[in-house]
Description:
The protein has 16 helices and 13 strands.
Amino acid sequence: MPTVLLISVITLFGWLIVDGDVAKAFTAAVAVLIIACPCALGLATPTALMVGSGRGAQMGVVIKGVDVLQSTRRIDTVVFDKTGTITTGVMQMLDIVCVDGVDRAEALRLIGAVEYASEHPIAKAIARAARAEVGELPSVSQFNAMTGMGARGVVDGVGVQVVQERILKGELILVPGPLRQAMADARAFGNTAVVAAWGGQARAVCIVADQPKPTSREAIDTLRQMGMAPVLLTGDTQATAEAIAAQIGIDGDDYHVRGGLLPEEKVAVIREIQDRGYAVAMVGDGVNDAAALAQADVGIAMGTGTDVAMQASDLTIVSGDLRLVADSIALSRATLRTIGTNVFWAFAYNAAAIPLAASGRLNPMWAGLAMAFSSVFVVLNSLRLRRVKLRH
C-alpha cells in the first residue's frame, strides 16, 4: 500500500510537471489507486481456503487451517498406526490357551475382570469373550493400565496381569513352552497374543484377531502412486506387524515396518525419519497415537477414533476410510496450488496495470472494471476446487 500511494503521488506531480494539466494529472493518479485496490490479493487465500475446506467437508475430511496446506506439499512418507487405523479395530478373541492345571473358565474369569476395566480394543475383545462364556465378571481393584503394554489389577485377592511378553521378561517370569508356541502360531497369522500371569507364573495366552480394513491395500497403493512411502508402526510384535504389512502391501523391512513400540518409541521413530530429511504424515486413531500425531509434520486422525487423537491432529478423516488419506493430501495440495495461482495473478495484474494507469492510458472507469474483474477471477479460480474428485 505505501508503494502504491507513492506511485500515485509521483504520477500526480509527474504529470503536473510534464503536462501541467491538473485534471489529467488527477485522473492518472486516481486510476493508479483504483487499479491497485488490493481486493484480489485480500481474496486470494480466504476464498481458496473456504472452497477447499468446503470440498473437504463434502469428502469427509476436516482441515484445520492454512498451515496444514503448507505442510502437505512436502509430505513424502506416511506413517500408519495398526490397530483401528490399518485394521478395523474391532477385535475378536479367537482362543485362550492355558497351561496344564489351569481351568479355562477360571482363567477367563480372572483375565476378563482385569480387561473389563480397560479401554483398549484388545482388552474389550477379551472381556466380551469372557462375559459371553462365564457370565458376570468379578470386580477389580488396584487397576493399572500400562500404556501400550497391557493392564494389571487385583481380582478376589489375586494379582493378575494381562500384558505383553516383554513385561514378564522384565519381572523374570518365564513363559512355558506351550504358551510360547501358541504365541508364535498366532503371530504367524497376523493375530495378536497377550500373556496372562498370576501367582508369579504365566498361566494363559489370549489370542485376538484384528483384520485389515477392506480399503487399506487400495489406500497404500494410491499413496505409492502419489510418490509417498508407507510405514507401519505398532505396539504389537514385529512378527504380527510384518504379517499385517504383507496383507496390505507394505514392504516388510525394518525401515517400513516396526513392531513392539511404545507410544514414546513411535515418536522417536518419526523423529528419526524426519532427521533423515523426510517430511512425515502420521495416521492414527487412539490415545496412544496423540504424541506421534503431534510430532509429525502433518497429523491425520481417524474420526472413528478418540477425541484426543483428533485434537492432536491437523486433518481428520471423519468416516475412518483410509483411502481418504490420499484424497485429503491431494485436496490440500490442490488448495495450496490455487492459493499460489491467486496470489500470482493478483500481483501480476497490478504489475501490468499500474504502469498503464500511471502513463495516463487507463481511464478510472476502466480501471474500476479491471479491478473488479481481478476479484471475480480469483473467486472463480478458487471455485474450481469444487471439482476435485475422490481418487476411488
